[in-house]
Design a protein that fits this description.
This protein is of the alpha+beta class. Helices cover 41% and strands 29% of the residues. The strands form 2 sheets. Strands 3-2-1-5 form a 4-stranded antiparallel sheet, with helices on one face. A 4-stranded antiparallel sheet has the order 4-6-7-8, covered by helices on one side. The chain is elongated.
């Protein structure tokens, strides 16, 4: 029986000294040196990705406000999206004056600029869900990057 178990790798465990387990100091130092060399580029990419995701989130949240306003306008006979640049945010209000939805667009430090430098703007939608104003451009900025959301006079939304 002893000869059968010997062929399955038990002799390797006989050779290893019980006090010598783990990795050597040189192996650990080599791994740390590689990680230190790779850390700056990885952190730079991660920071850019975070900025891009925060801008995209603000842009999509604003686009969602306009989509909701269109649907609410069809059901309620009209709706208005009220936008403020400081702090960046928006509110959907029905024709009767009820606030249906609010959105904070400044997550992560994102700033928003409205068309023609306004501090506040309104985008109205009629009972057919069509816009009743001239076009609007919302510009979202963070860390030197920007994204735009353009709302046409008919209420269509384009991401740029």
């Amino acid at each position: 029986m002893h000869q059968l178990t010997r062929g399955f790798g038990t002799e390797g465990s006989e050779r290893r000294n019980p006090g010598q387990s783990g990795h050597s100091l040189i192996e650990i130092a080599a791994v740390l040196a590689i990680l230190a060399a790779l850390a700056p580029p990885i952190l730079g990419v991660a920071g850019g990705l975070r900025t891009s995701l925060l801008l995209r989130r603000a842009q999509e949240e604003a686009a969602s406000l306009f989509a909701d306003a269109r649907w609410i306008a069809v059901g309620a006979g009209g709706a208005t999206v009220v936008l403020t640049s400081v702090p960046p945010g928006g509110v959907v209000v029905t024709r009767a004056g009820d606030t249906v939805r609010t959105a904070r667009l400044s997550a992560g430090g994102v700033s928003m600029t409205l068309s023609r430098g306004r501090a506040r703007s309104r985008v109205r939608f009629g009972p057919l869900g069509l816009g009743l104003v001239s076009s609007q451009t919302l510009t979202f900025r963070l860390a030197g990057e920007e994204r735009r959301l353009v709302i046409s006079s008919l209420g269509r939304v384009a991401r740029r």
